[in-house]
Amino acid sequence: MKDFKNKVMLLTGAAHGFGREIAKEAARREMKLALLDIDEPALQETSKMVADLGAEVLTVPADVSDEDAVNAAIDKVLAKFGGVDVLINDAGIALPGRMWELPTRDWEWILHVNTLSQVYTMKRIIPVMLEQKTHAAILNVASIAGLLDTPGMPAYHASKFASVGLTEATAYDLQRIGADIQMHVMCPGFVQTDLYHTEQHRPTRYADATDPYYSSEAFKKGQQFAQYVITNGTPIDTIADTVFKALEDNTFYILTHPEYNPLISDRVNRIVNNGAPDVHVMDGIM
Ligand SMILES: NC(=O)c1ccc[n+]([C@@H]2O[C@H](COP(=O)([O-])OP(=O)(O)OC[C@H]3O[C@@H](n4cnc5c(N)ncnc54)[C@H](O)[C@@H]3O)[C@@H](O)[C@H]2O)c1
């Protein structure tokens, strides 16, 4: 996709971090914007920023982990703009914690936000894009954690490996029917955003203050781990340019941290050579 002017972008996770940066760059490129997020005050701030840049914007507060809420939000987007040219599924959360300690409600929460929300939006928007018969793009934000395995955050890995696989498999099916939709999956390393504030975005149906896990040492350590890795990530300033360059060049895998590429190769080599995860290898890395 080379020309973005007057095209409609539907963007989840627009209130903070990557989403806000992408929204601002889309506004500079004169796109029309439909912005979704669960954090309404921060979403309104993003909307004001893009409106100040001259963009036509629809602000849709919505919890993407709730399929009914996503469908209601998309109804509003289609009523306002009549279609969607670029769908970016960016909303996400990070929940560190050992597999057997993380409450099941947290497993459900992260899989709904990081993975199923991408299913909900694509199920609605792909038929719209096919009907439009104009060139379109879908970009799912996964993570390097969808290509590499590391200790300390199995739920995040599960959600992001699923996002990568979902995007790859959907790309095949779209190619097979000759759809004019370019697909992308973004797999960044650690970047300085608000991602370690995940607890502020916990919907009430995933909350249970009586569960002792949330006052445990394991929970506190997980929070500290998330804050450490995110605040020590790379600056966010190049992310929006990277996204738009990938959209322009039709790059399927969007890798932002080339220093991780050898680890991706190591993992694939380990799989085909009958290897297994070895925590001693990870000790120097994570
Ligand atoms: N920052 C990193 O190091 C990093 C690395 C790899 C991948 N990612 C991914 O990038 C994406 C954006 O994350 P970020 O780093 O900008 O973090 P962020 O916290 O700054 O932004 C995430 C956004 O998602 C929104 N969100 C959370 N739950 C939601 C829900 N239920 N419904 C609607 N919106 C919801 C938040 O309000 C927030 O605006 C995520 O998918 C994340 O997993 C981030």
Write structural notes for this entry:
The protein has 286 residues and is of the alpha/beta class. Helix content is 47%, strand content 13%. It has helices at residues 17-28, 40-52, 67-81, 104-132, 154-176, 217-231, 239-249, 261-272, 279-282; strands at residues 8-12, 32-37, 57-61, 86-89, 136-141, 181-187, 253-255. Helix 1 (17-28) links the parallel strand 1 and strand 2. The radius of gyration is 19 Å and the shape is globular. Nicotinamide-adenine-dinucleotide is lined by residues 12-13, 15-19, 37-39, 63-65, 90-93, 113-114, 141, 143, 188, 190-191, 193-195, 201, 203, 230, 233.
Fill in the keyword field for this structure.
binds nicotinamide-adenine-dinucleotide; alpha/beta; 286 residues; 9 helices; globular; Rossmann fold
Strand arrangement, largest sheet?
3-2-1-4-5-6-7
Q: Which CATH C-level class is it?
A: Alpha Beta
Poorly predicted runs? none
Beta-strand residue percentage: 5-15%
Instruction: Let me know the largest β-sheet.
Output: 7 strands, parallel
CATH architecture descriptor: 3-Layer(aba) Sandwich
Compute the gyration radius: what is it?
19 Å
The H-level CATH homologous superfamily, spelled out, is NAD(P)-binding Rossmann-like Domain
Q: Give the helices and strands as they follow along the chain.
A: EHEHEHEHEHEHHEHH
Given the structure, what is the number of helices? 9
Q: What do the pLDDT scores average to?
A: 97
Overall number of strands: 7
Distance between the termini: 37 Å
Structural class: alpha/beta
